[in-house]
Specification:
It is a single chain. The chain is α+β, with helices and mostly antiparallel strands and about 240 residues long. The chain has 2 domains: about 5-85; about 90-230, Gcn5-related N-acetyltransferase (GNAT) (Aminopeptidase, 3-Layer(aba) Sandwich). It is built from 6 helices and 12 strands. A hairpin with a 2-residue loop joins strand 2 (about 15-20) and strand 3 (about 20-30).
Amino acid sequence: MADRQVVEGVWPGPIIITRGRSRADARRWNDETPAGHLRLLRGGADFLAEATGTVAEYSNGVVYSPALYPSATRVWRRAGYRPFDSLIVMERGLAARWAAPERLVEPERNPNWDRVVEIDDAAFEGFWRMSGIGLAESSAATRRGIVLTVEDGPGTVGYAIVGADWGVAYLQRIAVMPQHSGKGIGADLLRAALNWARQEGARAVVLNVRDGADVARRLYHAHGFVDTGTRLEILRSGD
C-alpha cells in the first residue's frame, strides 16, 4: 500500500504533514493574512507539491516558502513555486571590537511573547510582521538561542532574537517601538547580540535584511556588517 499523507495539528495553529519519511510543517504567515508558511523538512518536489495543496486549502490558496538560499530553491520551483521577494545577507566577524551597550539589555529565556508581538507589529508593516508562533519558531531555529530585551520607562520597548549553531550566530530579528526610535536602543540590542554571540563561541554573525530597510542597513553597516553578495529568496505558490 502506498504511503498516504497524514496531517497532525489544527489550523490556524501549526500543523505537521508527513507521507512516509517525508515531512513538512506549516502555519499561517502571520496574524494579518490567511496565507500559509510551509517548511520542507524532508522530501522531494512531489511531496512538497502535495503538502502545498493541503496548506492551500487552509490558506486561501496562497503559500510562501521560508527565506531560502538559492541552492535550496530548486525543489520548490519544481513543485510550482515562483519568486516573490528577496533578502540581502550581511555578515560581521567577531574578531574586531565594538562599543558596549549604553543601557541594560536583559537576556530572556522565557520572554513575554505577547509584548514581543506587540513590538513587532508596531515596528514592521503588513506582510513583514510575524506572529507569536513565528517569533517563537525563530528563537528555536538554532541549537542555542536567546531573546534580548530593553526597557525604557515602564516596560519593554525593544527586542532581539539571536541564536548560534556550529560557530556561527544568526541575528533572527530585531525591533524597537517606533516612538522609542532614535534613542540608540537598536544599537544597544545589536551590541548585546554581538556580545552574546562571542560568549557562545561564534566566529561571525549573519543576518538578512530587506532592500528597502535603509535605517536597519545603516545600523548594520555602522556596526561592521558587510553585504555578502548573497540573497535569500522567498517563493510563493498560488495567485
